[in-house]
Amino acid sequence: MKVIILAGGNGTRLFPLSRSNRPKQFLKIDAQKTLLCETIERFYDIVRPEDIVIVTRKAYIDMVKKEINACSMGNIHIIAEPVGRNTAPAIALAVKYCREKLNCPEDEVLFISTSDHIIRPTDLFNRAVLKAVEFAVRGKFVTFGIQPNKPETGFGYIEVGDDLNGAYTTKEFKEKPDMQTAEKYLLSGRFYWNSGMFTFTCSTYVQELEKYAPDIVTLIDEDYNQIIERFADMPDISIDYAVAEKSQRGVTIPLSLYWSDVGSWDSVYDVLQKDKNGNAIKGNVITVDCKNSLFFSKDQLIAGAGLDDIVVVENEGIILVTRRGETQKVKKLVCKILKQNCKV
Questions:
Q1: Do β-strands 109-114 and 191-201 pair in parallel, antiparallel, or remain unpaired?
Q2: Which domain holds residue 162?
Q3: Which of 155, 169, 311, 318 gets the most CB atoms within 10 Å of its CB?
Q4: 173 and 271 co-located in one domain
Q5: How far is CA 55 from CA 35, 36, 76, 250, 312, in A?
Q6: Which residues pair with 199 in a beta bridge?
Q7: What is d(CA 92, CA 84) in angstroms, rounded to the nearest whole number?
Q8: C-alpha to C-alpha distance for 173 and 160, rounded to whole angstroms
Q9: Residues in the chain with pLDDT values less than 70
Q10: Measured between alpha carbons, how far is 201 from 112 in angstroms, rounded to an integer?
Q11: What is the pLDDT of residue 343?
Q12: How far apart are CA 27 and CA 20, in angstroms?
């Protein structure tokens, strides 16, 4: 098995902590190590370092190498995407690399991992990975569904079908719902949050691309160096839209463990420890009579008084202030800042 870690994202939902020059996977949220380093270490017990391939952007190569050294995993492979083209082409490039550079057979199992999620405990996660391998070698397109514990409108969902003894057939992928729909999903017991992780063999992925995304297959028929040269011609599309939502081979393995995509400041608040007043505090912060709020400082002092359900984040001279429950709007805020030609 090869583990493919996708580390090319440049997300801005944790602005101003995540920036164009330091995206989320290189941040330390609730530990002494970055999310990427935690991801690499998650696979210590099931693969060798030389079985891990990290796909990232050229601009992030040095940061990736730094994290590999921090994890003492020097034999990890790194693929540099010439340009960002989303997850479906990134995985196709990784398949080509595994075939051509690592001499992997067509039935080599690939585990596709995110690089910026928090998953605990590792032993439960690894058991699920090995379960996924069992289905992948039978030609299945395996995904992982997170057991929801609340109605969540910030995630996509997976509806499952028949019971497969520790897994389910994948019935349908659902877009992010409104609150009423999310509540129905939770009560039904047949819906899981989409984790963004997948398992399949090289041949299964290529066959599904041939069926549902032939424009990607046309390019990966070339040799690796030619693909790199023409990578900008790849469509900008996620694996979800390109294959997962259409595949008739889908199997979903439920994950009943702690998981967070750390995709918003509300998520960061949930992850961090709270004081007796329900405040999550990190960095240089002093508060008086504040409750249920997040204060995150990298450099400057944050002083808060009489605040409730507020998020205040400071980093490199930029201060974000929003209300808890509204932090999904940060992405829109960043778009507005960029339109005003301000550097983020």
A1: antiparallel
A2: 2-260
A3: 311
A4: no
A5: 15, 12, 11, 24, 33
A6: 111, 142
A7: 13
A8: 9
A9: 341-344
A10: 11
A11: 66
A12: 12
